[in-house]
Amino acid sequence: MSLPAFAELLERLIFTPGRNAKLALLRDWFATQPDPDRGVGLAALTEELVFTAAKPAMIRDLVAARTDPVLLALSHDYVGDLAETVALIWPERTGVNASPPTLSEVVEALEVTPKAELPGLIAGWLDTLDSGGRLALIKLITGGLRVGVSGRLARVALAEWSSKPVEEIEEIWHGVAPPYLPIFRWLEGQEEKPDPRDAPVFRPLMLAHPLEDRDLAALDPAAYRAEWKWDGIRVQLTAGPGGRRIWSRGGEDISGGFPEILEAMDFHAVLDGELLVIRDGPGGGVVAPFADLQQRLNRKLVGPKMLRDYPVGVRLYDLLFVEGEDLRPLPFDERRRRLEDWVARHAPARMDLSAMIAFGSVAQLSEVRDGARAASIEGLMLKRADSPYLAGRVKGMWWKWKRDPLSIDAVLMYAQRGHGKRSSFYSDYTFGLWRPAEGGGEELVPVGKAYSGYTDEELGWLDRWIRNHTVSRFGPVREVEKSLVLEVIFDAAQLSGRHKSGVALRFPRIARIRTDKPASEADRLENLMAYVEAGPATDE
Amino acid sequence: MRHPETWLRVTPEGLLCEPGGFYIDPPRPVARAVITHGHADHARPGHQAVLATPETLAIMRARMGEGAGASQQAMRHGEVLRQGEVTIRLVPAGHVLGSAQVVMEWQGSRAVVSGDYKRQPDPTCLPFEPVPCDVFVTEATFALPVFRHPDPAHEVAKLLRSLSLFPERTHVVGCYALGKCQRLIALLRAAGWDRPIHLHGAQQPLCRLYEELGVPLGELRPATVANKAELKGAIVLAPPSAIADRWARRLAEPVTALASGWMRVRQRAKTRGVELPMVISDHADWDALNRTIDEVGAPEVWVTHGRDDALVHALALRGIRGRALHLVGLGEDEDETPAEAPEGAPAA
Predict the structure, then answer these.
(1) The ATP-dependent DNA ligase family profile domain covers which part of the protein (chain A) (predicted)?
(2) A364, A276: one domain
């Protein structure tokens, strides 16, 4: 099948907000497209294949040679995006007999075509396509599809389509290169499961359930081990003869963003840990709040200043493989012992052990949890001493016990419509707190945005209230009368230079609608500032 | 020959044919109006005498009752009328049912006011007929070379493919109640969709009128009284303003589609929260505008509304004199007007 089919998939994915609908579109793609195009398309969507053969300037030159400059300028000004302008304005030539290229033809030709011949080749392709196809091609070859399909979503779609467990797909995924022919043959029952051998692959992470009160009551303290739950990003480090990788929680390869970690991975093992910004401080490494780590996320290239100002390290939670030996079936206690030995022996740079927290009773543990005020600590992790390392969230094995959230009473300022099922509801709320205004008096300053926490009934109530109390509208956003108080809960407050208020909230959500409280009695910015930790958290 | 600029003028009341004593599509109430078609931005209420095609008059009566004009004169395609010293003919414009171009002749010169028009085939109305003239007065709603409307059958096929992929979900298509709605139904019927099509209340009166005027639309049902189970996998046609608003909550997990020429630009679709953009327009696209101007052979073209800058520039390149009239009030069809400029939420 050719590029137009891919273009249609792309268009639908871009406009489709719902996860289930995206999965359905992907399943349909796997079921209807031939090899190797379905794999090439998949790799392009998840950006495992990225092309940089053509620069935007080349595309601009191609279209400039075919259109009037004034009309091109007016069009670009109207459409905004250059690739889209080119796709739409490209003069269609009647009598073009060539059929559109297939995805794999595009990929192959880009590899072998000398640079000087690229413009002619691309122009020839553009002549065979309609506007959707042209846009897909241009985005593809200039390396910017950006359709919001993660590798994880794609693998879930493959699992649903083939009825194979997603964990099995995860384990071999990174061992097979696009267009993934052995994987498709396996999923269609034509071949054995591919063996990645030494290739660095992602092993599905073991996850925790949130601990509810009734679980707590049933908890046997002797059967569980406790650690801090750090507020960074969960990673898996894989290193060995086949190479080194840093995987995100969802199995994305994020190695490129953290060269200092990659450099330190001169071992043959698979480790589970938390990536954190850790700075030297009195008495050891000091973990910075999540906002600092955010500076390092989603970057392809990291400059020396970034490396200096936001140094990262990995706090190790678990050991999955060592020199090819699979430790996952072993109980947690045994793996922990092996992890401690391993760290003692290798002493890898930029890595340390997650400390175990000793406790004799649930009450004692509860005290420890309440005492943790550092913004970099989300709460506690409880792991059963005999738990093997299992893929996914297995009930009763691991628990996460977050700190009680913090709370403020804020005033609703703006509301925005949601997406998908919530597209008829004003479901995203910007709220603010009082502070002294420059010319005297008080003013509200926005401090955050929340789009969860409420019940369906509360959502309906809020939607009506917003429609009846709108004072102005900007596109999809409504500004409302500053008269409704919302109790907002959040996990931490952190200083932020990127926010007008100077403070950023972690996971803000709506706890209650406070119709009983007049807006003038809502909290002041200084109340929120009191929640901001004086300094970064220490190790303890 | 008297050049049309001496007898066809822009006034605050609208475009005035002076020797004929009538206005064409005037935005304010006047004594004598010639109306090209029934869309609200062209057919305003409150004129004394109205001249239009029988279909346009019927549409006006359906939409505005008494306001459709104190005295109404129907004129069929092919008839010729003398109004003062001016002869008038109405020629099909291919825009919506009843839509017409106004062809005027006075003292040896001929001017044609196109109203809104398109060149794509449309089973619900007569096709546009080019009339050679000295001055062609054209719209320019989609006068940028990025606007090239695809084959509408292709867009309808996208909708039907989506229905087969999501057979449990209602597919709600935003479309203007006059013209677009009935054309969509006809396109769906031509594509083999013979199941009932459900309508928002605002779409029903004009569908009934189209049928009375001889345009068959197949089985139509009100969407408002239908239950959720009935709406699973159904096609519902509604005004664009309703598809993502409270009204749509009655639908079964709706896929929101919007049929409009503006859907060709992604940001437009994104801003409206449209999941399935369908590029179907009742206006001429860039190629059709330019082809039409070449076919009528006018040495001079006046542009009523839309992207006159781009069109006048393109005409100058071909040695055709272009002039922007800047007529106010036109181009306000609900689905053919650009949505409000997108603005993000104030930074939190």
Answers:
(1) 305-435
(2) yes
Range of the domain at A47: 3-141
Is residue A243 in a domain? Answer: yes
Who has greater pLDDT, A282 or A458? A458
Q: Tell me, yes or no, if A229 is annotated catalytic.
A: yes
Residues A270 and A415 occupy one common structural domain: no
Query: Max CA-CA distance within chain B?
Result: 67
The average pLDDT across A70-87 equals: 95
Are A381 and A410 in the same domain? no
- Check residue B41 and give its pLDDT: 93
Question: Cβ B275–A17 below 8 Å, yes or no?
Answer: yes
- The answer to whether the Cβ–Cβ distance between A423 and B344 falls below 8 Å is no
pLDDT, position A540: 34
Is residue A246 located within the same domain as residue A383?
Answer: yes
Within chain B, residue ranges assigned H as helices are 54-64, 152-165, 180-190, 204-212, 228-231, 266-271, 286-296, 308-317
> Do A385 and A428 share a structural domain?
no
Residue range B77-98: mean pLDDT, rounded: 95
Alpha carbons A500 and A365: distance in angstroms, whole number: 38
**DSSP-H helix ranges across A255-388:** 259-264, 290-294, 304-309, 332-346, 362-371
In-domain check, residue A161 = no
Query: In total, how many domains does chain A have?
Result: 3
Q: Where are the beta strands (DSSP E) in B190-306?
A: 197-199, 220-222, 235-238, 255-259, 276-278, 300-306
H or E element that contains A199: none
**Alpha-carbon gap, residue A499 to A195, rounded angstroms:** 49
Residues A334 and A420 in one domain: no
**Judged by CB atoms within 8 Å, which residues 472-511 of A form the interface with B?**
473-477, 499-501
CATH number of the domain where residue A507 is located:
2.40.50.140
Give the number of other Cβ atoms within 10 Å of residue A409's Cβ. Answer: 19
Nearest to B146 among A78, A421, A446 (CB): A78
Largest CA distance in chain A: 82
Does A166 reside within a domain? no
C-alpha separations of B250 from A490, A527, B172, B313 in Å: 34, 43, 11, 48
A125 in the same domain as A89? yes
| 3-state secondary structure (DSSP) of residue A185 | helix
State the pLDDT at residue A533: 66
Q: Which residue carries 């959502």 as its tokens?
A: A459
Q: Is A92 on the interface with B (CB under 8 A)?
A: yes
Instruction: Tell me which DSSP letter residue B93 carries.
Output: -
In the prediction, which pLDDT does B238 show? Answer: 96
Domains and CATH numbers, chain B: 4-146+282-324 (3.60.15.10), 152-278 (3.40.50)
Question: ipTM value of the model?
Answer: 0.92
Distance from first CA to last CA of chain A, Å, rounded? Answer: 58
pLDDT tier at B145, thresholds 50, 70, 90: very high
Could you tell me the two tokens for A463? 């939607």
B-chain CB neighbours of A14 within 8 Å are 266
End residue of a domain, out of A402, A434, A455: A402
Angle between helix A56-64 and helix A118-128 axes, rounded to 10 deg: 70
* CA pair distance B7, B5, nearest whole angstrom: 6
A471 in contact with chain B, both atoms CB, cutoff 8 A: no
- List A residues 409-468 in contact with B (Cβ-Cβ < 8 A): 413-414, 416-417, 419, 421, 423-424, 428, 430, 446-449
Question: What's the rounded Cα separation, in Å, for the pair B237 and B258?
Answer: 9
The tokens describing B83, both together, are 């109004």
Q: Does A391 touch chain B (CB under 8 A)?
A: no
